[in-house]
Design a protein that fits this description.
It is a single chain. This protein is mostly helical. The longest helix has 21 residues, at about 425-445. It starts with 6 loop residues before the first helix and ends in a 17-residue tail after the last helix. It has 26 helices and 5 strands. The protein has a domain at about 255-505: P-loop containing nucleotide triphosphate hydrolases (Rossmann fold). The chain is globular. It has a 5-stranded parallel beta sheet with strand order 2-3-1-4-5. Helix 1 runs parallel beside helix 3 (about 45-60), helix 3 packs antiparallel against helix 4 and helix 11 runs parallel beside helix 13 (about 215-230).
Length: about 550
């Protein structure tokens, strides 16, 4: 009898699955779905179920994605790849406690599959839990010891935990195996302050001269080169590298700053003092502390200070308030059959107490029973009025910083899928002006509701400013808040390296090193009345 070929069907399945995932990456969802339906008809197994769930995700139908994977678990039993997909979908639905539980269960039963272990580790990295990711990455490295992607994720976990020597060793291995890897180059530049005698400037320059360098690698390498050149005092060359990195990055984005400016103008137009007085009262619960402002202004520093208090836990940069607000406002918009094209006007009809309850229901499970928790999403500055209306007893802390120090610090930071206005100086200046007008508006319509904390005052006199901060938040004094840099809690923001150091003043007026290059921003801000012709800060303008 002729032997049966048992590998051919498997090869056909794998090749079809790969083709379907390639179509998904190309945003050809319907074509991927047709392949998936054919596989489900012929081979309804765990791999096809995961694909079907991924297709529902791509269509932004997360409830359907979860329904598919839950049905597959009921049918096939607990399989690590199904539990991984369940965890990923639950995280997107912001059901994070359940998502972490699913990821942990998947890790318990996971077969020796390096990619599956790496994906499970990413769930924890994205949840700001690098310590949980590390054992999974160790198992993955034992299976694929020379895989650059696994080594990079391992380096990142060490970086977030302030294990800089371990991170450096992993990154060197990545760059040995994958020379020119932009992500590794960028993180390596952040590990320490470079010196004239010890830096990676020539390596970075050589990397950027490689033919056919990938765009993402070039972007990261330019930002790394700029940082290292700034460290060693080569300011003109630093800004030239930064400008090129920003130029390339901006070319990859479909972004129009006018949409953000229009959104802020509408918030100010609709959320007047009178409109807020007439809106439904919110939920009286106390405990949340919102930290808002522009990025790179000290928001992470204040988060770490507050998080060092025994009565406070920091929950990181949560998207929950804007997500719950949008969901409730959409529901009101539909239920009133509004034909008003301005969605924000309809949002004034929300039940703000329900908004407060929905937010608390989503985030309180993460607070581990503590009454006070920090929600540090800088972008929430746009929603201060709505936050106060929904949670009138929540505390709002707004970080302020010298306008040009702020703009320069934002411009030199390579963000991940956020702050698209930051890569072009004119757009950055326009956004910054609108941000200042928005905050002036909130102070005008809600006097005494928002506590402004100056970055410059904080670094000049930490004890006094920390006392003021704790008093505002209704917290008793604890000396530990001054030792925030000793905390072993992970930090996964753009300020990861900086918040591991005691408070320092060397970042004050750093923009002066690039005064000539930043003149387009100076002129924009001066015209808006935020700085004088020399770039010195002026009082905030009144809202229009």
């Amino acid at each position: 009898m002729k032997p049966t070929n048992t590998t051919a069907p498997s090869r056909t399945l794998d090749s079809t699955l790969n083709a379907a995932y390639d179509l998904l990456k190309a945003d050809k969802i319907d074509e991927a779905d047709r392949l998936c339906q054919g596989l489900l008809a012929l081979t309804p197994n765990t791999k096809t179920a995961v694909l079907a769930s991924a297709i529902a995700e791509a269509r932004s139908d997360l409830p359907r994605a979860l329904e598919i994977v839950n049905a597959a678990i009921s049918h096939h039993g607990e399989k690590a790849e199904l539990l991984l997909k369940q965890a990923q979908v639950l995280m997107q639905l912001r059901r994070r406690v359940e998502g972490v539980a699913a990821a942990r269960r998947a890790a318990e039963i996971c077969p020796p599959d390096a990619r599956l272990l790496q994906a499970l580790a990413k769930v924890h990295l994205e949840r700001n839990e690098p310590a949980e990711a590390q054992p999974l990455l160790q198992r993955a490295r034992e299976l694929l010891p020379t895989d650059p992607a696994i080594l990079y994720d391992s380096a990142l976990s060490h970086f977030y935990l302030n294990e800089m020597d371990e991170a450096a060793a992993m990154l060197e291995r990545v760059l040995t195996l994958a020379p020119g890897n932009g992500f590794a180059l960028y993180v390596r530049s952040q590990l320490r302050t470079q010196t004239a005698g010890k830096n990676n400037v020539e390596y970075l320059r050589t990397t950027l001269m490689r033919p056919h360098i990938r765009k993402q690698d070039a972007i990261s390498a330019y930002f790394a080169l700029s940082k290292e050149l700034e460290d060693i005092g080569e300011y003109n060359e630093s800004f030239a590298a930064l400008s090129e990195g920003n130029r390339i990055k901006r070319s990859t984005l479909a972004y129009d700053v006018r949409n953000d400016l229009d959104g802020m103008q509408k918030v100010m137009a609709h959320y007047s003092r009178e409109a807020l007085a007439q809106a439904a009262p919110g939920d009286p619960a106390a405990g949340p502390i919102f930290i808002v402002g522009m990025p790179r202004t000290g928001t992470t520093l204040v988060e770490r200070i507050l998080g060092s208090h025994a009565d406070v836990v920091s929950l990181g940069e949560l998207v929950d308030f804007p997500a719950e607000m949008t969901a409730l406002a959409e529901r009101v918009y539909v239920s009133t059959a509004s034909t008003e094209p301005d969605f924000l006007r309809a949002s004034l009809q929300m039940d703000f107490a329900e908004l407060g309850r929905n937010y608390l229901r989503a985030v309180q499970p993460l607070a581990a029973g503590r009454k006070h928790f920090v929600d540090k999403l800088p972008f929430n500055f746009r929603y201060c009025g709505l936050i106060h209306q929904a949670l009138p007893n929540a505390k709002i802390v707004h970080l302020t910083r010298d306008p040009l120090d702020t703009c320069y610090a934002v411009y030199k930071t390579l963000f991940i899928n956020a702050y698209h206005y930051s890569y072009q100086l004119d757009e950055l200046a326009q956004f910054y002006i609108a941000y200042r007008q928005t905050m002036a508006h909130w102070h005008a319509v809600m006097p005494g509701v928002i506590c402004d904390v100056s970055y410059e005052d904080l670094v000049a006199d930490p004890p006094a400013q920390c006392r003021r901060l704790l008093e505002w938040c209704g917290l008793p004094w604890q000396d530990d808040v001054l030792d925030f840099h000793r905390s072993r809690v992970a930090s996964t923001t753009a300020s990861t390296a900086q918040v591991r150091r005691p408070i320092y003043t060397s970042s004050v007026k750093k923009w002066r090193n690039f005064e000539s290059q930043l003149q387009p921003v100076v002129r924009r801000l001066a015209a808006a009345g935020l700085v004088d012709a020399e770039g010195n800060a002026l009082p905030s303008p009144q809202p229009r």
